[in-house]
Amino acid sequence: MAARQLSGKKPQNMRYTLHTLLSYMGRHKFLLLAVAVLVSISALANLLGTYMIRPVVNTLETGDLRDLVLGVAVTAAIYGVGALAALGYTQTMVKAAQKVLYDIRRDLFAHLQTLPLQFFDTHRHGDVMSYFANDVDTISDAMNNSFAMVIQSFIQMVGTLVILFILNWRLSLVVVVCYIVMFLYIRFSGKHSKAYYTRQQASLGDLDGFIEEVTAGQKVVKVFNHEQESLQRFREKNEALRQAGTGAQSYAATMVPAVVTISYLNYAIVAVLGGIMAIQGMTDVGSLASYLVFVRQAALPINQFTQQSNFLLAALAGAERVFEVMDQPPEVDEGETDLVRVREENGSLILCEEKTGRWAWKGPDGALTPLRGDVRFEHVTFGYAPGHPILRDVSLFAKPGQKIAFVGSTGAGKTTITNLINRFYDVQGGRVLYDGIDVKDIRKDALRRSLGIVLQDTHLFTGTIADNIRFGKLDATQEEIEKAARIANADSFIRRLPQGYDTMVTADGANLSQGQRQLLAIARAAVADPPVLILDEATSSIDTRTEALIEKGMDQLMEGRTVFVIAHRLSTVRNADAILVLERGQVVERGNHEELLAQKGEYYQLYHGMFELS
Question: Are residues 549 and 411 part of one domain?
């Protein structure tokens, strides 16, 4: 699938990913600078506190109690400053990390809103959710746990090495060799675990997508007794995640033991050689004591650094997936014609702000064209994939106020025509005209404001019944909402609900029947009061009795509007002004119900063969 191609590939540009992440962090540079300063103070305090072992131990040789107390007091003060700095940077880092994550989530969601419908048609919802849940969470872990720790570990590693050379440069040569061995192994382990971390993030997104699909389709799974098959597929995807996770953690888990082993070996060698040097008078006892503590502590910042590198690798893998989505090209909108409110004055259209119920297209030159609902296709050719046309040289027209019905077998191109009217997709040949204007020249938001659509697959949002109807017109009053519900014949069932229009809708309307959800979708289109209405098998989920009840309301809704109907039941299109029969992407017949029956062609066979199309 396209989603796997996007998320499962090996990182191609880690430098770009890191640069983009740093650009987000740069938006809050003052907070992060404060973190860096406080972390540096904490790390330096730890180094200086350890170095103070030298003068404190040496005062034991002189027996000066005053110097001993002073040395201990200074050491305590240094560690106290370090503790306060640590408290400061942890709290500051929390605020900075949440601000960065807020920006990333905001920009990701905002960019998703600009992507063409094709992106969502080719990516599973679970994969999209994985960007917000799994991938952003890995960035969150790295920001909260790794940013400050990496700075602290780096300062402690470099500072420890510098102080070791100050205390005893001869012994430090041994330490340098051990450092080199440690970093060579860290590089080897990190190189091999990076690819596994990327596979792990991709497998996690794939698994989430599968879980989302199966959960949403539980009824279908149970109807066809596919529980075992679903479980088997889950096990396969879970196994892929396990293998990727095991591979990533296997290499990562060896880093700390390897570093600790090397550091123990280093400590043993340095202790022996340092003891010999102290006996021979080549170093004082205080310097050796401080030196050995530094050597013993040297493994800690390296261990921390290696542990945080695992978080960073996972975070960069997740960040790369997120930034890849954010780099997807947005939906192109080159239209310059807008939709504006107008009123008629002395036979001319005048721009106005008040609600008059009249609209017009305002071209880039300021010319006003009345919104009438005249839709025409001129030699349109279109395919979702190159080389596989769905529509072939289709020409059709719908005059203002006409009801046009599309019938035909599955895959004939009925829904595709409506997708082209509202520019979910753009034609590859020919053109679509709306009131004589090419839809490519109309701003997409203006075009879609003029259209009301009732889809076959209804979608309700979490909120009240009124909120879901108001989704068609956000400034609709309660009176307008109830009027729209009466038009769709939904008012009666709504008032029978426990809280009426204030009844909460959850889980995509799970507490409502499919027919009730469809009625709410029709009411949502009615409240928008559009000049052009598209009904994509809008009554397919409504029983015959309910369909008869809403017929008058639908007639009222369609009155004076251009209406496109994709018919599931042929009985629903008898009163259409024109019925277009599509087969293999072409219009093969056009006429009203009686005219097409008289022709005894494709429609005649469909009508007498079966009254419903699959």
Answer: yes
